[in-house]
Amino acid sequence: MPTIKDVAKEAGVSIATVSNIMNNKASVSEETYQKVYEAIEKLDYKPNMLARNLKSNGVKFLGVIVPTFLGIYQDILEGIQRELSEYGFYIISRTTGDIPNREQHAIDEFISLGVCGIFAVTSFKDICYYQKAVDARIPVVFIERTVDELNFSSVVFDNRSLSRGIFNSLLDGGCDISDIYLITGEVSFSSERDFVVGAQNALLQHNYTEEELKQCEVSFSEIQSFVDIMEVFDGISVFPKYLVLTSERILDSVLEMFSVKGVENVQIYVPTGDRWNSCQMNPMIHPIPRRAIYGGRKCAQLMLEFIRKPTANENLQMVIPTELPKRKPLIEKGAISGGELRLLLTANAMSSAILKLIPGFTRETGITIETKVFNYQQELYDEIMKQHEEGSSYYDIYMMDSPWIEYFRQIKCVLPLNVFLTQDLEYVHSFVPDIWNKIQGRNRDIMGIPIVSMTQLLLYRKDLFSSPALQRAFYKINGLEMNLPATWTEYNLLARFFTRQYFEHSPTEYGTCLQGKKPNGIIQEFFPRQWSFHAEIMNKTKVVMNSVQNIRAVSNLKDTYAYSYPDIWDLMENEQIAEFAKGNIAMINTYSGHFKSILDSGFRCVGDNIGVSVLPGKYSLIGAWLLTINSRCKNPEKAFSFIKWITTEEHAMQCSILGGFMPKQSVCMNEQIKTIYPWNESLGDYVKMEHQRESLRNVKGTYINNYTIENIIADGLQAVLQNKCEIEVMLQNCQEQIYTMIHEWK
In what helix (H) or strand (E) does residue 527 lie, and over which residues does it extend? Predict the structure, then answer.
């Protein structure tokens, strides 16, 4: 591994010069500066941050005490690390196996190290062993379990409600209390006591007594729990039909006991850590996911507050709810089984996901689905319009882009879905409310169900924007600090800097890559700029394309094109992102729905260096695809059964892994989904920026086809970018054509 001495030798300077440059303390020539950073890159030198912190007395440790690194605890640790990753803390973890002496030793060790705080899944009943930490002014946050005194903050799971829910579900389903058995860890732990109390509450609700609860207590030790469980069930000839476990740590021992005794057909309910998948590990096992990563993040947030403000938020107890998975059948076999449906799609990641899942729908219902997929959305739109004009009922379900909603509603091309939704508000409320409301608009008719919500965002190279050498060069050229762009003017300044034609030391050939395919690609680049410059197509009843604001917006786009990968005219999001992934472009404006995952193999060239942020300006163009039903469909009930099937919690999660973000609340809240789609962390900020296209009406008050208007603007933009037309001339031409359309549209 190279050292700072190797860097100094490679650059031909002293070790002190390298150190000063890396700590921004040096006043050296640009030549020397570039030599040092070229040496760092060539040798792939990584400074020893721990040594630097120790030298400056700036080391920041946090201690974590957990029983084991398995199961839910690895998710809690993941959440803590994820939340603290940007704050420079070193996390030291210790496992105790729930043995008090080990926990006490870990506490003493952390205090001697001078940690900034301690997270603990404690096996103690009171605070006496943590009093040393209190005396040393080290904040403590308890996880999953609490102590009897409420002198510490804690983040726990709502095990009481979870247990009550499991027992209520079984008893409501006709189970007898004698058929249910609760297996807990040591009830001296608050987490286990909560499970018992929750079960007892359910019994009382069903007119049983608390004493009728069948329950045993076993060790959480993976070895000892097997011994305990074998003793509990020794001699039992008739096993209970249902076992409720309080932890995955008990599960292996239960299954081992079943193997020894030849037990079959016993249903096991067990809470787990975070899970995105809905499949059961075993037909007998019913996992109940808990938001453990989220819990770890909340622990870290509390700790950060204590460290920043030691007197703030004292004695705060946070309880994280857990919902029982909903697995009720949505399709009654026999009612709509068999037959065929036909589906029109456009090529994108969500369509690919749907195609992969369709065989499952056929297995469940006997309904086969014929599909046709178009490469571009314009082709899909043209086919839908052709079907409508011919009065055809051949296709049952259409994939519909959100800008088409108002026009399709007006010409009665698709079927309102209210009749299927009025009696199932729970289904409606399962979607993210802000996204649902923005897509559906103010009209009471629901014309489609959103299957993918896409937000425009800025993808950029984190390694380039954080490079001290590039930051220094940018400042020297522009007299400004290099930050992410807040305006489209700043965007162009950065794009120019990262274009090698204008800055010979740029690590990328192009600063950006526009989408150029007409009309959608270039329009998606133009509209956010237009709105940011406070321009519009129409103001009330007047066409105002030829305005100062629109001149500025088009001029800005033309400047961007000068710093863009040039061959843009066949590029939509998929092709644009593929170019970015090659590593030769610094940043792009694109839709999240086409950027499948930061773990995608196509991003190997840029790896972990992909950053995500909001677009410059204050506006982005809302993007969503919906599934809707042909207004002439002969069996709309059957068609809607597929739409509802593909948007259930189970399939929404699968689609979101395979093909982008389906705007369901369960997907939005899932921490594992956030790992691969990091922009979901700031979803609320993105949604606030989203803006609908202008819906233009003619003089009779009816909507004009969006594509007709956008084709006019896109043709003009292409002419300007290719220097075939002046901006003012292009805008005047657009204004005249749109004016004619508004007054002559039939």
Answer: helix 520-532
Residue ranges making up the domain that contains 390: 340-453+632-689
* Long-range pairs, 134-138, Cβ under 8 A, ≥24: 136/111, 137/310, 138/110, 138/111
**Same domain membership, residue 282 and residue 263:** yes
Per the CB < 8 A criterion, the answer to whether 271 and 251 are in contact is no
Q: How far apart are CA 395 and CA 356, in angstroms?
A: 20
Residue 626 forms part of a structural domain: no
Q: At which of 260, 293, 326 does a domain end?
A: 293
- Contact status, residue 404 vs residue 706, Cβ threshold 8 Å: yes
d(CA 563, CA 721): 12
Long-range contacts of 207-210 (CB under 8 A, 24+ apart): 208/177
Whether residues 240 and 354 share a domain: the answer is no
Query: Which residues neighbour 134 within 8 Å (Cβ) at sequence distance 6 or greater?
Result: 127, 140, 151
What phi and psi, each to the nearest 5 degrees, are found at residue 611? -110, 155
Taking the model in full, what pTM does it have?
0.74
Contact, 182 vs 173, CB < 8 A? no
One domain, residues 249 and 175: yes
Q: What is the pLDDT of residues 557-581, one digit of tens each?
A: 999 999 999 999 998 888 898 899 8
Q: For the beta carbon of residue 249, count every other beta carbon within 10 angstroms.
A: 23
Specify whether 348 is located in the same domain as 449.
yes
State how far the Cα of 312 lies from the Cα of 318, in Å rounded to an integer: 15
Report the C-alpha gap between 198 and 195 in whole angstroms: 5
State how far the Cα of 290 lies from the Cα of 161, in Å rounded to an integer: 12
Tokens coding 6: 């190797």
Split into its structural domains, the chain has a count of 4
For residues 722 and 271, give the distance between their C-alpha atoms in angstroms, rounded to a whole number. 61
Report residue 35 as tokens.
Answer: 């030599």
Residues in the chain, overall count: 746
Bridge partners (DSSP) listed for residue 180: 242
Closest CA to 343 of 368, 307, 378: 368
Q: Quick one: tokens of 71?
A: 């199961």
| Beta partners for residue 697, in sequence order | 703
pLDDT tens, position by position, 607-652: 678 888 889 998 888 888 999 999 999 999 999 999 999 999 889 9
> Does residue 356 lie in a domain region?
yes
Residue 354 sits in the same domain as residue 287 = no
171 in Cβ contact with 134 (< 8 Å): no
Specify the 3-state DSSP secondary structure of 246.
coil
Let me know whether 212 and 354 are in one domain: no
**30 lies in the same domain as 177:** no
Domain final residue pick, 15, 36, 55: 55
CB 378 within 8 A of CB 403: no
* 276 and 346 assigned to the same domain: no
pLDDT-flagged residues of the chain (< 70): 24-26, 47-59, 149-151, 277-281, 311-314, 326-337, 441-443, 595-607, 745-746
Q: Are 320 and 158 in contact (CB under 8 A)?
A: yes
